[in-house]
Design goal:
245 residues; 8-stranded mixed beta sheet; two-stranded antiparallel ribbon; 7 helices; 10 strands; 36% helix; 27% strand
């Protein structure tokens, strides 16, 4: 589609801490006072990076508002595996805190002048996949669908699970050591019990982080896979075309 993509960094707060989102959208949406569906982009364990910001821009090119959120706080980013793990682990351990961060990002996105606050979706990568699954588990009324790319599946265990109203698409490498076939069946059962409309696309001969061209640690089960990357991207596009039709 023909569009002039505008991008901007936006600060928002949660619990007295400042976070920095990156929004991308068609400038015509503001000029014509049009409201567009918004898709949050939840980052991997290193924090918001060019990878997530580029995803937001690609979503804007499809006619959405792309909103790359920030779980860790403004300027908090990891550059090594140890740093990434130290940033991520507190949120894996405290899923109530994680949900607070997600809700703050959701509220900030809903206030954007180009966003139709009744039509919001989310995508996430690795740790971000866990994040968007937790967002769906929270049964937020304005979240219509989420997509997890090579995400983590462990349930939050923070109280009784409400019915999940958001549609869920899980895009998964079958050889991912961080989310085993048994874990995959576990989340399928969990989502079914929560009356969720869910799909799982599992890609054979595919490891963790298959959508990231920079992933190249097969000894750790982490490896880019071009075919799975392309297939998962097409599945995501089809998914949002369906739910925002």
């Amino acid at each position: 589609m023909n569009s002039q993509i505008k991008t901007e960094f936006l600060d928002y707060t949660d619990g007295g801490e400042t976070f920095e989102a990156y929004a991308a959208y068609d400038a015509a949406a503001i000029e014509k006072n049009e409201k567009r569906p918004c898709i949050l982009v939840s980052h991997a364990w290193g924090g918001q990076s060019d990878f997530e910001r580029e995803k937001a821009e690609k979503l804007a090119g499809l006619g959405y508002v792309g909103f790359a959120l920030d779980i860790y706080g403004k300027g908090k980013r990891g550059s090594t595996m140890d740093e990434n793990a130290k940033l991520m682990q507190p949120y894996v351990d405290d899923r109530k805190l994680l949900l607070s961060r997600l809700n703050a990002a959701l509220a900030a996105a809903a206030k954007h002048p180009a966003v139709d606050s009744s039509r919001i979706g989310a995508i996430g990568f690795c740790f971000g996949g866990l994040c968007v699954l937790d967002l769906a588990r929270s049964a937020a009324e304005n979240v219509q669908g989420v997509v997890s790319f090579h995400g983590l599946f462990s349930p939050p265990e923070i109280g009784e699970q409400k019915a999940i109203t958001a549609k869920v698409l899980i895009l998964h490498g079958y050889d991912d050591p961080m989310a085993t076939p048994e874990n995959m069946v576990g989340i399928a059962n969990e989502l079914t019990a929560a009356s969720c409309d869910w799909q799982i696309h599992a890609y054979g001969k595919t490891m963790h982080a298959f959508s990231n061209p920079g992933a190249n640690m097969p000894e750790n089960g982490i490896l880019y896979n071009e075919n799975a990357d392309k297939r998962s991207d097409r599945a995501m596009v089809n998914f949002f075309e369906e739910i925002f039709a």
